[in-house]
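Researcher: Structure for this, please.
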Amino acid sequence: MGKNVKIALIIGGIILGVIIILPLVFGAISGWRYRVWGMMGPGMMAGFGWMWLIPVFWVVFLGLIIWAIVAAVRSSNESKDSDSSKPDSALEVLKKRYARGEINKEEYEEKKKDLA
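Model: Predicted structure, token format:
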């Protein structure tokens, strides 16, 4: 699991926790137990009047799912494209050594002829 996916899951868990716990906390503070209900009972969401929260919840939830999928696809593509998974060829190592100054031009030319 990539770093982006883990971050998406953590943020999603926090948001879902807030969305679930927030109405309960506000209900407890406002004294929802002592309200007088109508003929049909407390109604949706136990009478908190939080109907606006349902569309917000779904937009956030679907956004997190899309973000997690995109992050998973990107992390899998990055791991396939990374050069660290395949070893360098001998000629590439030779070029790097020459560029760093570990060998001089004569040694470079000689070893290049040997490799080719």
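Researcher: Any notable elements?
Model: The chain has two domains: 3-85, 86-116. Residues 60 and 103 are 58 Å apart (CA to CA).
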